[in-house]
From TrEMBL:
This is Chitobiase/beta-hexosaminidase-like protein. Keywords: Hydrolase, Metalloprotease, Protease, Signal, Zinc. Belongs to the peptidase M14 family. The lineage of its organism: Bacteria, Bacillati, Actinomycetota, Actinomycetes, Jiangellales. GO terms for cellular component: extracellular space. Residues 359-698 form the Peptidase M14 domain.
Length: 798
């Protein structure tokens, strides 16, 4: 195995790092709490105003105006900021007080916080206090155990427990758990201000697995839960002739695409290359240079040609002619643009940055080579400095890395690639800095093709599925991460324009591909993405603006047999599925899967994660498994939501690189995006095994023709349905024929499973049918037809 190459990075501090600093104006401004000078004249008695008070803007000319406002008896806050007409301060005043201030000549502007807003906040707080008082008056809270499991990882045994308390909105409620004679406190998990449940943020190690645990609340509630095994028995390694370990170093996108091209050529009967239609922008930039030392006198130039096509050969210089009353002028000599600065009568440079910009842009010979701009939209009224700069695109990849637009490809693997078999999509490196993820893709493709002849299990997968693997969704960003800025997350497309189009911002350009999709996007009001072009989670100027995102959508549309997908990310050891986004107001998520669909996600996940576990015993924690918004955060516009809600594709997110236990320090260590290759290799191996587990799930789904079977039970809370597999149940309670439009069994709550169906007193006729994940309907009943072979039962409540 080749030794990994370690590349050191020197992160240069931009010359103009201080340019973004804003001068603190009116630093000596005092208010009523600390005025150091008495206002002139006699203070004016304040108005006794009984109207509701609110916060309003008042604009005065200067510091003395603020003191006059205080002297007038106004309740001036500590807020003050310079505006075009003077100083804006905020004043607490009712309607009568506002009119009095206007009569005294003060410029009273808009309302900052209206009286009704203050009243609403007070009412909200009082309601919360009443709610908490009501909770405190109860004898005890109710505890609902969501998960109680043990698992093995890194040779040790751990316990994971998740519990919801009915008093969860009271942040003072504390839950503790007793395990083997020891007591632990669970962490309260809240997101967007909403209580979700209590959990261990890190699983606790145990020497002996308990049969059950007891959870106690400070509010008096108590419950006992059985402890189950999280992942099944680790599977033995594949057959004796099963080959693994096909990667031996981190590979940039050019390498991984050369690898899958070679594989497809070597195995033409089993694989082919699918070219995706939308070319990327390319690993390229226009060359730039910046001249100046403070914001006001700074300008920068950008080449018209790409850097590698001549932009990097250009030079811009500003010269002090050294003579009095010299005019501003621009000349071009080959690749050099020279600006002779205008001078005053004493021979000092007098041309401003804005004037230099205009001169360059209006000189035809110069503007044919480059465009000039002031720094971040500044007026550029400072006198330009003399300097000389070579333009550069600041890209350091070797010449072997193409600068041209990149054609993203998928390797399609299967003995029957005609769309008749269940399709599975695995895709990696939406985020450029995640170097392990393309290795997972390459290793998986190699395993499928090289083990096909000698391994029966592999043959079943290749013969029974239509597999698509994209090793690098974001090749431009990937190249940039490898050769320029290793923490690059986004692609390389610059949507910033004049706001952040300067070279100091160039390492922050790009769009987060996993925030650029059309479902649950920032543009629809969902949170977890940004509209700021230099943000790490910039979602782009519009939904699906980026070719990388459109390529994924095109593939699922071109091949509608794709029913499963895995988005391979790193790091953190998470395993997640939709919904992945919510609206902040009320933490309102995208529609949750039905309880049956949710249980199918869980069941399939156990199988996939057991396959991960089989490589070296690494367990993805149950507390890091589940819908994105339940275990991590809201990620507006992500690809898994796109595929699930638009196409019904069961889609997951791997976050490879689970934390590693350090027995000497007694703590969990994170691995990062680019761990030493020895660790990266192990991650690639175990999560490639996880993809094989996904293919097994997909094949079982594609061959499933057996209808599910359910039974009905009446409990104190209503009717519940037990089933032989994960199902969605439709029912009626009025004796009518159930259809797909009939009510569905809903979830009892986050991570809680199906809720009982309430029934009233007396006799109720329950008619229902169930549907499994493969679409098989119980009793082979046709809900859209006219048959009567649905399930039925009668329950009586005294």
């Amino acid at each position: 195995m080749a030794s990994p190459v370690t590349r050191s990075r020197v992160h240069r501090t931009p010359r103009l790092a201080a340019l973004a600093a804003v001068p603190l104006l009116l630093a000596g401004l005092s208010t009523a709490h600390g005025a150091d000078a008495e206002p002139a004249g006699e203070p004016i008695a304040p108005l006794i105003d009984d109207s509701p008070r609110e916060l309003v803007e008042v604009v005065v000319e200067d510091r003395q105006g603020v003191l006059d406002l205080i002297s007038a008896g106004a309740d001036v806050t500590e807020y003050a900021r310079p505006v075009a007409d003077g100083v804006e301060v905020h004043v607490v005043a009712g309607a009568g007080e506002q009119d009095r201030l206007r009569d005294l000549g003060f410029d009273v502007g808009e309302t900052v916080v209206a009286a009704e807003e203050v009243a609403a906040t007070v009412a909200e707080r009082e309601a919360a206090v009443r709610r908490l008082d009501t909770m405190s008056a109860r004898a005890a809270d109710t505890l609902t155990v969501l998960r109680s499991e043990w698992f093995e990882s890194d040779g040790r045994t751990y316990l994971n427990v998740e519990v919801k308390t009915s008093a969860g909105e009271d942040s003072s409620t504390v839950l503790t758990i007793s395990v083997n004679g020891r007591t632990y406190t669970l962490d309260r998990f809240a997101d967007a201000g909403e209580y979700l449940y209590h959990r261990f943020s890190r699983p606790i190690p145990v020497d002996e697995v308990p049969d059950q645990v007891t959870i106690t609340s400070s509010m008096g509630g108590e419950t006992t839960a059985q402890v189950d095994r999280w992942l099944g028995e680790p599977r033995p390694p594949e057959g004796p002739h099963y080959a693994t370990g096909f990667v031996d170093h981190y590979m940039d996108p050019t390498e991984v695409y050369e690898r899958i091209e070679a594989l497809a050529a070597e195995f033409p009967d089993l694989a082919e290359i699918v070219e995706l239609p939308y070319e990327t922008n390319g690993y390229r930039r226009h060359a730039q240079a910046l001249i100046g030392d403070v914001t006001a006198n700074t300008f920068y130039v950008t080449s018209k040609a790409w850097g590698h096509e001549g932009g990097n050969d250009l030079v811009v210089e500003t010269l002090d002619p050294g003579t009095a009353d010299s005019p501003l002028g621009v000349t071009v000599d080959g690749d050099t643009v020279t600006v002779s600065l205008g001078t005053d009568g004493d021979g000092n440079p007098a041309s401003t940055a804005a004037e230099v910009v205009e001169a360059i842009n209006t000189t035809p010979e110069a503007s044919a080579l480059m465009t000039a701009s002031t720094y971040r939209g500044d007026d550029g009224d400072g006198v330009a400095v003399a300097d000389r700069r070579h333009l550069s695109d600041s890209l350091d990849a070797p010449d072997s890395i193409s600068r041209e637009p990149f054609t993203v490809r998928a390797i399609r693997i299967g003995s029957d690639r005609d769309g008749s078999k269940t399709g599975v999509l695995a895709y990696s490196q939406e985020h450029a800095r995640e170097w392990v993820t393309p290795l997972v893709a390459v290793e998986t493709a190699e395993r499928l093709l090289r083990n096909y002849r000698q391994d029966a299990a592999t043959r079943k997968l290749v013969d029974g599925l239509d597999i698509f693997i994209i090793p690098s969704v974001n090749p431009d960003g990937g190249h940039y991460s490898f050769y320029d800025e290793n923490f690059q997350r986004k692609n390389m497309t610059n949507h910033c324009g004049a706001q952040y189009g300067d070279p100091n911002a160039s390492t922050a350009w790009g769009v987060d591909i996993n925030r650029n999709f059309s479902v649950g996007s920032r543009h629809d009001g969902y949170v977890g993405a940004s509209g700021l072009c230099v943000s790490g989670v910039y979602s782009g100027p519009s939904e699906l603006s980026e070719p990388e995102a459109r390529n994924e959508v095109w593939l699922t549309e071109q091949f509608p047999n794709i029913d499963f997908a895995m988005n391979v990310h790193s790091y953190g050891g998470y395993f997640m599925w939709p919904p992945g986004a919510y609206v902040a107001d009320g933490r309102t998520p995208l529609e949750r899967p039905t309880p049956g669909e949710e249980e199918y996600f869980w069941t399939a996940s156990r199988h996939i994660l057991s396959a991960v576990h089989s490589w070296r015993g690494t367990a993805v924690w149950p507390g890091r498994t589940g819908p994105v918004i339940d275990v991590l955060y809201s990620a507006a516009g992500n690809s898994a939501d796109e595929h699930w809600y638009e196409k019904g594709i069961y889609g997951w997110d791997f976050e490879v690189g689970a934390d590693i236990w350090d027995p000497e320090e007694g703590e969990w260590d994170s691995v990062g995006f680019q761990p030493p290759f020895a660790e990266g290799y192990q991650e690639a191996m175990e999560f490639s095994s996880g993809l094989i587990g996904l293919f097994e799930v997909a094949r079982a789904h594609g061959t499933d023709v057996r209808p599910p079977r359910t039974t009905l039970e009446l409990t104190d809370d209503g009717v519940v349905f037990d089933s032989t597999e994960p199902v969605t149940v439709h029912y009626t309670l009025d004796g009518s024929r159930p259809t797909y439009d009939s009510p569905m069994v809903r979830s009892a709550g986050l991570r809680e499973g199906a809720a009982p169906v309430p029934v009233g007193t007396g006799t109720t006729r329950v008619h229902w049918f169930s549907v499994d994940a493969a679409g098989n309907v119980e009793n082979r009943y046709d809900p859209d037809g006219h048959g009567r072979n649905y399930r039925r039962d009668t329950v009586t409540v005294e």
